Amino acid sequence: MPPKKKGGGGGKGGKKKSEGYVIDGVSTTEMTREQLEVFAHRLREEMEREREERNFFQLERDKLRTFWEITRQQLEENRAELRNKDREIEEAEERHQVEIKVYKQKVKHLLYEHQNNLSELKAESMVSLKMAQDDYNEQEMELLKDKRKLKYQHKEQELAHEDEIRAICMKHSEELNKVRATFEVEAREIEAKYEKRLTTQRNELNLRHRMELTEIEERKNKSRWKT
């Protein structure tokens, strides 16, 4: 009878001992100080790694945002340059109109003052007008050529920037996939490791339980033999 009471007391003590958190299949009440320190160290390493990964992704996002701002600024500068070229064309047109007006007034004045030399003066005036017209046409062609060139460069820059943005996004996506795959592999390895440890501990507990049952059965047999 006394051994049974002792065993019952041991059972109650076992229930109190099993209370607590379970980490990797092992109760914290059953862990040694070294095991708890190892687990705490592992948690700190995982938290540090997650912090580094978060900082990495924030840095990549900031780089992409900076690149986008620079690209947007360059596009705005190109648009401003195109507007300036348009303004130059308009100003050249206005100057041309003023020059024509001046030449016309000069022709009228010359015709009024020199009726006898009308043909000669008219020819000279027409030559001046023709030269002015040719000069204007040449300037206009150059400005239009510059405008087309700027539009082409602007389009090329837009396409190049779009390609760079796509390349950055693809690289970012590939890096995310690599990190995710690495995490999954590590998670499976950790899970397999602790599943194996849990199986080993479970087998040890079953073996210990069978041994205890065998000892109890032997003690019962000895007790019966004595009686």
Automatic annotation (TrEMBL):
Keyword annotations from UniProtKB, A to Z: Coiled coil
Signal peptide bounds: none
InterPro entries xrefs: GAS8
Cellular component terms per the entry's GO annotation: Golgi apparatus; microtubule
Region spans: Disordered: 1-27
GO molecular function: microtubule binding; small GTPase binding
UniProt GO BP: cell motility
Coiled coil: 33-149
Domain of life: Eukaryota
Protein's UniProt name: Growth arrest-specific protein 8
